[in-house]
Each structure stands twice: as C-alpha cells, then as structure tokens.
Design goal:
The structure is a single chain. By secondary structure, this protein is an alpha/beta fold. The protein has one domain: Aldolase class I (TIM Barrel), CATH 3.20.20.70. A 14-stranded mixed sheet has the order 1-2-14-13-12-3-4-5-6-7-8-11-10-9. Helix 2 packs parallel to helix 3. It is globular. The N terminus is likely disordered. The chain binds S-adenosylmethionine and iron/sulfur cluster (2 copies). S-adenosylmethionine binds next to strand 5, strand 7 and helix 11. One iron/sulfur cluster binds next to loops.
C-alpha cells in the first residue's frame, strides 16, 4: 500500500493522507516495523505554543509576534486525541507522553488526562501517562494534574543560576518559579520525577555540577537528573556540532565532583544511559542522541498538535490521521491504517547521521520539535 499525497492548506509541514488498507486486520498488540521494532510509546503534542523561547527549540527571531501558530480549529480535540490513543494502545502502546510546545498552556489539560487515564491496554492495564513541561505553570497545576490521573512528570531545566536560566529561556523567566514547580509536583506525588537539562557547550556547561548538587541536596532520591545532548532537530535553531557537549564529557565532568558507577537499563528502548552516585546520592541519566544513536530500539511514535503521525523526531513528512478522524472513518479503518504505516517504518535518522548518510526529502524541511513534541 502506498500513501496518496494531497495538497495542504497549511504548507508548513508536508503530510500524506494514509490510504485505508483493503483488508482490515484487527490490532494484535504485536505490531513491528521494518526493522523489527515494536510500537510502545506515543508522544502527543497538545499545543504548538510556548511561553519560553529556548534558542535551541523556538528561537525568538523566528517565533516572534508575527509567527502564525496553529488556529484552534486545527488542533485535535481531546476526544480525537483520546480516540487515537485508544487505537495506538490496541497496537501495543503502553506509555503516553503529553508534550508540545508547552503542554500546560493547553486549557483544561486535566480533562484530557482523565480521559486518557480511562484507557486500557489489551491486557486490561492502564497506560503509563506522563508529561514533559518547562515547569513554569507547574506550581499552580501539579495537584489538579495528579488528581486527574497523571502519574509522573518530566521538567526541563537548563540552569540553576538565575541569570543563565533567564538567558536560556529568553523570556526572562525566573528559575525560582520552576524550582517551586518541581517541589509542588513532588508534594502532589508525581514521582519519580525527571529533570532534563539540555547541555550547550559554552552556554550552560558550567551549570552541570550546580544543578546536580541542587537535585541531590534539595529534591531527594525520587528525582533523576538527565543530561541531553543538544540536537539538530528542526530547521531553525542554527545547530552546530561544536556546541554539542558529548555525554561522555558531561559524565567525566560530573564524576570529578560526584563519583559515578554505571547501572543496567531497566527497559528496552530506554533513551537514557543510567548511572548512580557511588555515595548513594541517587541516579543520573545521559541521553546521547548525537554521539550514540539509539535508533535500534526506538519504539516511539509522535502525534503532532494537528493530528499528523510522525515516525521519527527528524522526519520531514507526517501521516495525516486527522483527515481520517474527520472524514467519518471507523476505528477499524483508522487502526488498520496506523498498523500499515508503522509496518512500513524504517526511520533511523540518528544512526544514519552517525554514518554520515542522513538525508531529508529533497526540498522538504525537518519538522520543528515544538510541533511534534520532544
Ligand atoms: N515545553 C516543554 C519542555 O520544554 O519541557 C515540552 C516540549 S520540549 C520540545 C521537550 C523537550 O525537548 C525539552 O526537554 C527540551 O529541552 C527538549 N529539546 C528541545 N529542543 C532540543 C534540542 N535542540 N536538543 C535537545 N533537546 C531539545
Ligand atoms: Fe518551549 Fe520547551 Fe521548546 Fe523551550 S524546549 S521553547 S520550553 S517547547
Ligand atoms: Fe527514533 Fe528517529 Fe531518534 Fe532514531 S532518530 S531514535 S528513529 S526518533
């Protein structure tokens, strides 16, 4: 089966309307792609808007007051998201991550979380529901999110020093409010909580040890700090390899302050390499998307804010599920289309980048991270 290409009203991102297979095989939960990878993790972008302008993601010069974000009518409704998530669960998805943009900007997000919390895997288990946030609104919303059924949260935090943090978010947002958000999330029971720090050489690499010390001293063992290599996602962040600080160097640097020892992975497809402080001070993670590709186990799909399915963070072309949702197709038809799309997947951008052979479709630009979600 091949996809039909249709013209789009919004040409920012190319997408195809999936063809519905003639036969409609029921979902078995055993779907795998062309490289034998199962489908386990669905990341859902609930908004393309954000109140930060991190230069590695939404640089101010591009995402200024003239930038046209998606209109409300383009966004998937909560009911559409939940319907999709249910179909993905039948195909084997066990984990949902809400992201964006800044997901806490989406009004009444707790209503969506309650709907998602009612979904079950084919074995009758609830899905693991989590959310990635910049933490700016977390102090206000943590308890309501927990009450609605959110289990865990990941907070992005690139510096402990207020001046460095304000420069990184580029909207002069104070770090104290994010730290308060983390404490509120811990009080609400959103644990284990992950803190993600994107490390940019020459920008915030002096924050590695201070942030690690803060998490050890003030957050307790329920919080795991993870260092992320600065990635070449999207087409607007002006990425340069010399600004990437490889995880191996971050780890060596941290090791001189707090000695570390490796830990075994807990799950296949895990993005972070896990290490522990030898003094019992907890665990840290390293996500080395640039220097150590982990495509071989990549079991993640991404659903964009307007319902396009992307098979890789570095894709330039999505599959327009919203078109199917809004044209009266049945669950069986959409499920079969999803199965067929995943079965055809052979994406492994980071591996190919490592081999020096990565390409995007000619004339197409890579999709932005705030649109498909990190
Ligand atoms: N706004 C939320 C936040 O910042 O947590 C959720 C969306 S954000 C796109 C998701 C994650 O992507 C964040 O942890 C962010 O730091 C990470 N990210 C964005 N651009 C990145 C880049 N160029 N390289 C590495 N990580 C990036
Ligand atoms: Fe916003 Fe998150 Fe992107 Fe920063 S990383 S600009 S907080 S979406
Ligand atoms: Fe998965 Fe694509 Fe990242 Fe590889 S580059 S790990 S296939 S999202």
């Amino acid at each position: 089966m091949t996809d039909a290409v249709i013209p789009l009203a919004d040409l920012r991102y190319a997408a195809q309307v999936p063809l519905i297979p003639t036969l409609l095989p029921p979902a078995t939960g055993l779907l795998s792609d062309r490289l034998g990878r199962p489908l386990r993790d669905l990341r859902i972008s609930v908004t393309d808007r954000c109140n930060f302008r991190c230069s590695y993601c939404m640089p101010k010069e591009v995402f200024d007051h003239q930038y046209k974000f998606l209109p409300q009518t383009s966004l998937l409704s909560f009911e559409e998201i939940t319907r999709c998530a249910g179909l993905f669960a039948a195909h084997g998805v066990e984990k949902l991550r809400l992201t964006g943009g800044e997901p806490l900007l989406r009004k009444h997000l707790e209503v969506l979380i309650a709907q998602l919390a009612a979904l079950r895997t084919p074995q009758g288990q609830p899905l693991d529901i989590t959310l990635t946030t910049n933490g700016s609104l977390l102090a206000r919303k943590a308890q309501a999110l927990r009450d609605a059924g959110l289990q865990r949260v990941t907070v992005s935090l690139d510096a402990l020093d207020d001046a460095v943090f304000r420069r990184m978010n580029d909207v002069d947002f104070p770090v104290a409010d994010v730290l308060a958000g983390i404490q509120a999330a811990l009080r609400a029971g959103l644990v284990p909580l992950k803190v993600n720090m994107v490390v940019k050489r020459g920008t915030n690499d002096d924050q590695i040890v201070p942030l690690a010390r803060h998490v050890r001293d003030h957050c307790g063992p329920g919080v795991v700090l993870r260092f992320i290599e600065y990635m070449d996602v999207g087409a607007t962040n002006g990425w340069r390899m010399d600004e990437v600080l490889p995880s191996a160097q971050v780890r060596q640097h941290l090791h001189t302050a707090f000695p570390l020892a490796p830990l075994d992975p807990t799950a296949p497809g895990e993005t972070a390499e896990r290490w522990r402080y030898t003094d019992g001070g907890g665990e840290v993670g390293f996500i080395s998307s640039v220097t150590q590709a982990f495509c071989r186990d990549c079991n993640r799909a991404r659903l964009s804010t307007e319902g396009k399915l992307f098979l890789c963070l570095f894709a330039s072309r999505g599959h327009d599920l919203r078109a199917l949702l809004r044209s009266g197709h049945s669950d069986e038809q959409i499920s079969a289309a999803i199965g067929s799309i995943w079965a055809g997947r052979d994406d492994r951008y980071s591996e190919l980048r490592g081999l020096g052979t990565a390409v995007v479709g000619s004339g197409e630009r890579r999709v932005e991270m705030h649109y498909i979600g990190g």
